[in-house]
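Write out the 3D structure for:
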Amino acid sequence: MAPSIKSIEKLNFPWQTQDPFLFCAFHNDHYPKGNGSLGPTDDLSGRQIGSDFSGKDGWSMYHGQDVPGFPAHPHKGFETITIAERGLVDHSDSLGAAGRFGNGDVQWMTAGGGVQHSEMFPLLDDTKDNPLLLFQIWLNLPKASKHVPAHFSMLWREDIPTVSHTDQNGRVTHIKVISGMLGDVSSPSPAPDSFAADSDNEIAVWLIEMEAEAIWELPIASSEANRSLYMYEGHDISVENQQMVKGEMSKLKADEKTVLVNGPEKSRFLFLQGKPIGEPVAQYGPFVMNKNSEIQEAVQQFQRTQFGGWPWPSPAHTHDPARGRFAIHADGREEIKEG
């Protein structure tokens, strides 16, 4: 192995990550035309409705009954970074917040002391297919932040910077800076109590797109930071002269030079970096604490309070099909975006 490469591994589902991240769920669904009620036109027979992860015909319903997605469920003790590169997500939560985002937008939610939310994938187009390409990254919170108030922020696509690098052969690499800094370019601010809010934690979440045969060198960070590179589109790439193919990840040393040389096709990657929290992790489904006794307390808290209850008509709440991208925050503030 080259000095900067710790390992190259085949990806599982969900994708494996390094501390401070918990995992990454990657959804690449080729949904058909909509049926006029935000669901698919195709027959749902043969699927385990309510828990369909089959990938049948190139897509899944997940926990949705009529509309694909994830009806109301709790989170506590960590953060979710939901990158909706293609397709749309309808968000509703127990704080009374809601929104529709996608096609390049990112939602950053710090669950902290507890929240319920739903994430449905409305198929708005009844005339053509509705593809979805989505990453949901779980970022841990340290013990001191496990009980901070729940909060979500929208990082709209118009506000997320992209850095473009042209190599000596004129081939271009584009880096979408969702979190962290690249040179003098800084991402939008995450949720206020996020582990990423402290720049000393060196959290970086980037989407990288390389033209065929493009060359780009990852910037160096501190030796304490963990970094991972995930290839989700393309054929192959050379990472410091070691081959990596689609469906693999590289664990890299952050303080060593790493040169990426793309193969014969355009390639796309997710890049994650951060200093480890270094605390024990106890996880039970959507509850992430430090000890099993704390998990039991979290479950009891949810049973007792429902994290504020569910103010929406349905656990699988969706928004008006006529609406575009928008967000209504828990304090009543509303954001409306075009497209």
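Helices lie at 292-305.
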